[in-house]
Amino acid sequence: MQIVTEQRRKDIHNSDVPAVCAACEARHGGVCGTLSPNQLLDLSRHSTRRRVEPGREVVGQGEISDSYANIISGVVKLSKVLADGRQQIVGLQFAPDFMGRPFTRESALTAEAAIDTDICSFPRNVIERLVAEAPGLEHRLHEQALKELDEARDWMLTLGRKTAQEKVASFLYIIATHIDPENGTATEFDLPLSRADIADYLGLTIETVSRQITKLRKDNVIRIESSRRVTVPSMDRLLHVAGID
Amino acid sequence: MQIVTEQRRKDIHNSDVPAVCAACEARHGGVCGTLSPNQLLDLSRHSTRRRVEPGREVVGQGEISDSYANIISGVVKLSKVLADGRQQIVGLQFAPDFMGRPFTRESALTAEAAIDTDICSFPRNVIERLVAEAPGLEHRLHEQALKELDEARDWMLTLGRKTAQEKVASFLYIIATHIDPENGTATEFDLPLSRADIADYLGLTIETVSRQITKLRKDNVIRIESSRRVTVPSMDRLLHVAGID
DNA sequence: GCACGCCTTTGATTTTGATCAAGTTGCCGA
DNA sequence: TCGGCAACTTGATCAAAATCAAAGGCGTGC
Fold this sequence. Notes:
Largest interface: A-B, 44 and 44 residues
Strand order of the largest sheet of chain A: 1-8-3-6
Helix content of chain A: 40-55%
Oligomer: homodimer
CATH superfamily of the largest domain in chain A: Jelly Rolls
GO molecular function, one term (chains A, B): DNA binding
Distance between the termini of chain A: 27 Å
Domain Cyclic nucleotide-binding (chains A, B): 31-148
InterPro entries (chains A, B): cNMP-bd_dom (IPR000595), cNMP-bd_dom_sf (IPR018490), Env_Response_Regulators (IPR050397), HTH_CRP (IPR012318), RmlC-like_jellyroll (IPR014710), Tscrpt_reg_HTH_Crp-type_CS (IPR018335), WH-like_DNA-bd_sf (IPR036388), WH_DNA-bd_sf (IPR036390)
Pfam families (chains A, B): cNMP_binding (PF00027), HTH_Crp_2 (PF13545)
Structural class of chain A: alpha+beta
Number of domains of chain A: 2
Keywords (chains A, B): DNA-binding, Nitrogen fixation, Transcription, Transcription regulation
CATH class of the largest domain in chain A: Mainly Beta
Radius of gyration of chain A: 19 Å
């Protein structure tokens, strides 16, 4: 996330960039922050905003590379499936992340909204054109890719080597830290994923996820207000149970 | 991998780039291929080559971002450990990959050679300087990051959702396709990892890996010439057992 | 208000892979 | 050639998580 300077705010205000895009950039900088007002205007002409409901595909398997999108609000899950239907969520993207796979087309991922999600998407060719003009944009995309790579590798450690209990605690910690990044780590939050989704994220079954959540509750690591709402009395304790020390 | 043109070969030959670097670039292009002869000369002045023996750290945990390296030959494993010693290999890099985490420093990874490995490394600041001058270099690094991200996500599906049998078969397939990329998929090859490393890559124990290899042998999916040497009579059959259909 | 469906929880049982425990094999150095 | 050691294999047992099965909740529409 980048700091939007006062000068830049003015420049954008004085240009023809739609107010909605100016507001989006002010809020999270993101991919737009590396563009000049003119380029931002160009991008905004080709962008489309829409709300995606839970379970709805943002882009289909194999198509994710054809568009690029800022997540305005909400959570998107990226997943892969085996031929027999076994599924694994390989990434979660939160506002204000941006999504997409510029420059490569092979990836076979499905991206779908986990909860109500607003996205602002751009066609691939526009992004590629802007990348050629604005070197800062590619740098920004590169950083995003490295961030996702770090997250993926952390998650591989969790998938490969942690117990069910540690996995569930690790998941809760990830949600707590990502759900509202502007305000830091949350101690009370709504889970953006159903038990089935959590199971697909953790490489477990629904029943095991449920039992582990119950156990964390009985051990007073978390409180459950409703099936989706969780309170964490001590983040240190959660971290400890998650095996992150 | 990029094609090194005849003209470029001449340009480099006529410059002061050391023969060893010219040969390296001719062989795999890689990060060097995006640089002008002058820049390549600059880079070669700061590069150091060395052979790393199995089990030796290429860069220590937390330091990987301080240097950047081409793998000339061999295999490097990237791993993460939990406080109690449980370990997960989160990436394997083969020649002619290049390694490193430009622009971010947080990653806590250990990189060590799995077999005898020759690397050519450059200090971080030199790479960053060249990136500022040569936009093609950042593009190349970005592509590398996206490739690693794709591989990491494929592997997450394997770690989270495949059986021990499928995991081992998937591992053998990965090795077959990466061990000698110039000649395509190998049907007979040496495993670059010990059983313990394979276990750490697959999130299994040594014993389970051994049993599954024995089972693949008994099922005639593979032949075992020695504990490290494997022959795959039918790649389709291996793929099928790996759950990649 | 009630019934239906979906999500979640809980319980009983089974299975997969981990753990514990010996053996082999093969390599290196004496 | 022989030990010694590390890497690997095999076997017996155990435990964690999957599977199978059955109830609860909870929201929605009638």
